[in-house]
Amino acid sequence: MRLSRKFWTILLPLAVSACATWSTTTVKPAKAAELAQEAPAAAAQAAPDPATVPPPAPTAEPAPAAAAPAATATPAEPTIVDGVLVSENDVTDKPYKVLGDIKVTVRKTTIFNADPTRAQVDEKLRKQAKKMGADAVLLVRYGTVGIGLTSWGVLDGQGRAVKFE
Amino acid sequence: MRSSLNRSLLVPALAIATALTGCARQAPSLPAVGGGLALTTTPQADRPARCAALRSRVVTLRGEMKVIEDVIAGRRTSDQVGGYMASVLFPPLALVMLADPSAARKRELDLRQGQVDEALAEQKSLACASV
Fold first, then answer.
1. Do A74 and B55 lie within an 8 Å CB cutoff?
2. Distance (Å, rounded) from C-alpha B105 to C-alpha B108?
3. What are the mean pLDDT values of chain A's consecutive 10-residue runs (165 residues total)?
4. What distance in Å separates the CA atoms of residue B96 and residue A100, rounded to the nearest whole number?
5. Of these four, A25, A133, B76, B97, which has the most CB atoms within 10 Å of its CB?
6. Closest chain B residue to A154 measured between Cα atoms?
7. What is the domain extent for residue A95?
8. CATH number of the domain that A117 lies in?
C-alpha cells in the first residue's frame, strides 16, 4: 500500500508535467514524377483568349523564407519559425518542388494532461520539414482532438513539404 | 462471477468506447500533387475577379470550419468523462455511447476541407496573385 502511494506520488506529477505529450511522424516522400516543379499555372496556360492582352505579372522574387508570408493565398495566419513557413494555404505564384507529405500525430500522455494543440502539430511538422531541407510546409490541415487507441487526446496534422525554386 | 463479467466486458467496452465515443478525427488527406496545374478556361481579364471570389470563399469556408470545430471542442470534456466511465468504471455504459454525436459535424469538416482544397487548386491554376 505504501509502495503504491509512493508510486503514484512520483508518477502523477511526472505524467502531468514532464512528458505531457508524445508524438509520431511519418513522411511519404514524393515520387519522382511528383518532384517536377510546381510552376505557377498562368505561365503555362494554353493559348489564353487572344483578344485580351495579359498584363505583365508582378514578379517579385525575394528569398523564399522572407517572401513566404506574402506568398500565401489567404490570410490564415501562416508562421515562419526557424526559416520554415507553415501555412494552411498553398503558394500560388511561386514555383516550388514537392519533397514529400508529412503526417504528424501528437498524443497526450495521460488523461490529466492538456490536449495537444495545433501549435504542437505545427512544431513537429516544421522540425520534420527542416530535416528534409524544406522551405515550407503548405496545405496544412488538422484533425480534431479526440480519444485515440493509445491516448485520451490525439491530434494529427498533415502538410506538404516544399522547397522553393 | 460479477467480477469476471466486468473483466470480460472491459476489453470490448474499451475498444467500443475508444472507437466510437468522441474519437479523434483524422486530418483529411492532402490533395494530389500537381492538382492545381490543370488548364483553366477563365479569360485573363476575368481572373482578378475570380481570384478575389476564391479567396473570399476560402475565408468563408474556414470560418464555417472554425464554428464546427468549436462545437466539437465544447463536447470534449464530456466525451472524455464518458469514455473513461465506460472503459474503466462501468463497461456497459459503452453500449449507450455507441453513436458519436459529433460524427455528422466531422463529416461536414471533411467536406469543407475538400471545398477549400478545390478553391486553392483553382487559385493555383489561375496563378492568382498572392496577398
1. yes
2. 5
3. 66 57 82 53 39 35 35 52 89 89 92 89 95 95 87 91 93
4. 42
5. B97
6. B24
7. 19-41+62-164
8. 3.30.110.70
